[in-house]
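ok so dumb question maybe but i'm new to this and my supervisor (M.) told me to 'just get the structure for histidine kinase' and walked off. so i did the thing. is this what she meant?? sequence i used:
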Amino acid sequence: MRYGAFRIAVVYLVISLLWITFSDHILFFFQHRLSADQILTISSGKGYFFVIVTALLLFAIIRSDDRKLKQSEQQYRSMYESNPNPMWIYEPSKLRIISVNDAAIAAYGYSKNEFLKKTILEIRPPEDAEKVIASAARLENSINNSGIWRHLKKDGTIIYVSITSHKISFNGQSHVMVLARDMTETILFEKKLENINKDLQEEKRKLSETQLISRIGGWDFFPGEQKLVWSDEIYEIAGILKEDFRKPFDLYLEHIFPEDRAMMINALNDLIANGKLLDVTHRITGIDGSTRYIRQLAKIDSGSPETLKITGSLQDITELKMLKEERDRYQLSFESTLNSMSDAFFALNRELIIIRTNEAFRILTGRDSNDIIGRSIFDLFSKEQNVFYPVYQKALEDRVICEKEDYSLVLNKWIKLAAYPTDEGVAVYFTDISEQRSKDARLKEAVERYELVAQATRDVVYDMNMLQDHLIYNTSLTHLINVLPENIKYNLEWWRGLIHPDDLADVVRGQELIIREGRTNWECEYRLNCGNGIYKYIIDQGYFVYDEQKRAIRLIGAVRDIDALKRSVHENRQLADMITRVNNMIIVTDPYRRVRWVNKAFEDMTGYNLGEIGGKVPAGFLSGPESSEDMLTALRVKQELLEVFSLDVIIYTKERVPLWISAEFTPSYDESKKFQGYVTVCQNITFRKEKEAETKRQHDLLRKIAWMSSHEIRRPVATILGLVDLMNQAEDEAERNEILPLLNRCATEMDQMVHEINNEIKNVEELH
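this is what came out, is it supposed to look like this??
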């Protein structure tokens, strides 16, 4: 209150005491003149008067203070509600927001009711929750500047705000008032500026590294002051210490080789006097005593003769110089190597001009080097007689290595030529192979005789060098194994990789036994992978050759296909078990679920023959869009458990026509009770499945007709009965006329339903 409770009480007490004291004294002074009744009346009246006057005064004071208090509260409330910055009040114990101003509602996108249902944690990212709780616990009674925080708007946008808070008394309880100033643009700008500075620093670092890597540095020279300013890179390139107290210009001149110093100074003076661009290469001595080659480039940047400034760059080209010297040494060595070669060599540029030859070429052509270099290749070998011209041209144009063997009409020799593309044009190497061609012809004739003998037997004949691990086969190998000639490998590891894993150990053990006992003849039957995962039985008969130390050095042998014989015995055994089921489809698979055999009924039904599907897993070619992955998984599990089982499954023919089959899976074993795979007998049940589906559709239609008869038709019938009853109760013709259209509409509805039932009945009849 304006006057203060204590002050009002003191004033009231003083006035009351003075009033009582002086009014009683005055009344006592006139007691002789007044009667007792008058004194009593005056005494009571002055008391009433005092109470009324003081009550009115107190009422006026309290009302005035109350009005001013309400006005002050309204001003503070207006300052809170109308503040352009978001503000809210929350309860410290539960962190629940209990009041929020309009600016906060506008800034955050929540309605007032949504805001008042939230805590201060819910308008912040979840990862900041612990920091918020800790910050709230540290609040003091004075104004608290909590710094920059991240807040979440209703649409999920994160904003950055500066938080100022202080504790207040609200509705008689302690609360915290918070003022938030949006700093998002400022923070984002600062971050962007920080990233730009980082990028600039990174670019500066990269530039410095690039200069160091490329051994380049910059410098400025002021002739008037004889002042030379270097970049940091020059100290490292030139091998000069930064701590050297001497002037850089004098220091650098001192490091230049004496015989190069005058050239550098003259070029600098020429630049100053005539403005001629400085481009000088000289040598310097590094601090470690090494010699370095430096290239200097400079030009006049600006200024009058008194303030002339020269800007230049320096590059360490020592490595380039070393490479040039190395190239010269290599060139000399290359020329020496070419001349020592037995093959003739010449190099052509892109215009097919001879630019380099070796001694063998000059001897072969009988011409001197001066008579060859610079002339066209066609001057030596005319284009009409030059059968190798297309080889040069292809190597030159397509940039590929080209080789050719042919008879040279110019040299009257068989020539083997190879052309290699180069930066200058093409390099050509050729040699005389006339004698080699003669030997090859005789060898070819002998090999052809050998191949004819091999073709007559169809046996695969091989010769293995056991010391070099090199195998040679005849051409019958491609008849036995479905493999392209270029995919054949000529080593023992590749051949043994074709042997069935279950047979490999026996093959190796048998060969090792023969070698250990020093015998020569070896024979073994085993299965061989002949392509596409199909194994065939073969008999391998070999002869071991030993050296003087009794080491096996060679194995010569022949391989014969006996698969038909072996499998006929096995198939006869299987056919005896299947003879009673030949009318059904039969599939025989190996332990790895790959097809080994199918009967004719299977081929006729599905369109697949054994040659197409041998070695393949049935699920791979019989599955289709309606196949169930769960069913295939269950089938594999049962097969892995070697169970006897049956199931109905849909398969697809080669023409992708779906068939329903009832498949019966039975595991098969050999004489030693070893699992050999599954025998699957399949019965076509497509017709049965179609009948089941047709019956289901009939039942569904009949159920629909029954429902329409028992439910849909009752509605118009009940309506007609009600309308007829109303007509019977109608008192005049007008009422009956109103009912007749309704009866007509109900009859029409009933007629439509009868037609629908008839249509459904026709559908049922069509199914039959």
